[in-house]
Specification:
A hairpin with a 5-residue loop joins strand 1 (about 5) and strand 2 (about 15-20). This protein has about 80 residues and is α+β, with helices and mostly antiparallel strands. It has 2 helices and 4 strands. Helix content is about 40%, strand content about 25%. A 4-stranded mixed sheet has the order 1-2-3-4.
């Protein structure tokens, strides 16, 4: 289930998915390490979500982010981590 799709004032779509993955102290202190871990763990799932959004809305999300509860912040998931659409 897609957690959140936002539409900005320009009509762009943004996908946000909430995650509760445990992060090490180093990952919590270094957002790049957290991004790498969350990308590895969830890029396939988020690829499917992005494909579903494209099918439903006729366009891909401009950004894909994970809101990490342990980190208390969002991390951007790079589009090159996704399966081809």
């Amino acid at each position: 289930v897609i957690d959140c799709i936002l539409r900005d004032a320009d009509g762009n779509l943004h996908l946000v998915d909430y995650k509760t993955d445990r992060l090490t102290k180093e990952e919590r202190e270094n957002p790049e390490l957290a991004r790498q871990k969350l990308t590895r763990a969830h890029s396939l799932q988020l690829s499917y979500y992005a494909l579903a959004i494209k099918e439903i809305f006729g366009k891909s999300p401009k950004t894909v982010r994970v809101y990490s509860l342990p980190l208390g912040d969002t991390v951007d998931i790079p589009k090159d981590a996704f399966i081809a659409d």
